[in-house]
Amino acid sequence: MKEIIVFIEHRFSEILSNSYDALGFAYEWQKLFGGEISCLVLTSEEKKDIFSDLKNVVNKIYFLKNKFLENYHPELYLKALKDFLKEKENYLFLLGQTSNAYELAPSLATELSLPILTDINGIEKTDNEINFIRYFYGGKVCGKVEVADIDKKSLIITIQTGSFQFEKREINSEIIEKEINLDNEKNIEILEYKKEETGEVDISKAEIIIGIGRGLRDKKNLPIVEELAKKLKGVLAGSRPAIDAGWLSKDRQIGSSGKTVKPKLYLALGISGAFQHIVGMKNSDLIIAINKDPNAPIFSISHYGIVEDLTKIVPTLLKKL
Length: 321
Ligand SMILES: Cc1cc2nc3c(=O)[nH]c(=O)nc-3n(C[C@H](O)[C@H](O)[C@H](O)COP(=O)(O)OP(=O)(O)OC[C@H]3O[C@@H](n4cnc5c(N)ncnc54)[C@H](O)[C@@H]3O)c2cc1C
What we know:
Blueprint: E1 3-8, E2 10-11, E3 14-15, H1 17-33, E4 37-43, E5 60-65, H2 74-86, E6 91-96, H3 99-112, E7 116-120, E8 122-125, E9 130-136, E10 141-146, E11 155-159, E12 174-179, E13 208-212, H4 222-231, E14 235-238, H5 240-244, E15 265-269, H6 275-278, E16 286-291, E17 304-307, H7 310-320
Parallel strand pairs: 1-4, 1-6, 4-5, 5-12, 6-11, 7-11, 13-14, 13-15, 15-16, 16-17
Antiparallel strand pairs: 2-3, 8-9, 9-10
Flavin-adenine dinucleotide binds near residues 242 and 254.
């Protein structure tokens, strides 16, 4: 059985939600194939306490400590991970899909000569095979990946945002701490980490979200959706094209490269439902989509749908509210 090692990423004294996605995958794997789950944390001695949430959810927690590991550093993180994994055999090394993981995972795979699977959003067990599921061609096709001789191999896997559920468990975790030496092993100097500006609203906490997409077509249509948001006491957010078009600020983007939201109501206006968007809002309590294309994928995850031009429906709605 494989050891399942989950890399825990942290920033500004908080564990990144993507690491919980990776833990969710680990649970799923464990249910299907067994194996012990470990978390691997690179940190400084001072920051160790921010990981207390992990204490009862996995079998083991490895803390590799060094003052230079307090924040992400590409060379030092890679070196620490490589040295740690070199000593292991037959494992899965899981990372949430973050920009740092995009950098670390393939570098590690190259350094350790291991196979790598990226952006995995599902796993399937059949009689004699294990299939990993992921999207191809920018989300247009969902396919299965099989790894030959998987029983004998270690694997690096990155997990797509929002694809697996983290669940609280009650396990007595074994804690293993090790101070590691990394002095003089860096060529890159990180000058400062800056917190992202949050803007005037934090959409991840909003209870009612009106999501707009490319289907809004023109900035001149913004006032009707702004009025709708006001009447519903909600906030406006959007798909990436809505942000790229400059209709909304970047902190309002929902999806794999934006924010994850879970409002009581998500009203999707002119949003097709690409997986990069859906991963950020699919867990909303109630999803209502308005789209003029009856085959838009957003309808497959919506509780209610209206097939219509949003510039006709929204003014009608406004009159009723
Ligand atoms: C690495 C990467 C990261 C990405 N990250 C994100 C992300 O974080 N968030 C995100 O959203 N996307 C992201 N994307 C982009 C994503 O793949 C899609 O392109 C995007 O989500 C599509 O946005 P959309 O639904 O607004 O536009 P489209 O896919 O163009 O859909 C527009 C929809 O509006 C409908 N429509 C048109 N006119 C009207 C009308 N008058 N009334 C009603 N409906 C109408 C159409 O039928 C269509 O379904 C990412 C892509 C990549 C490659």
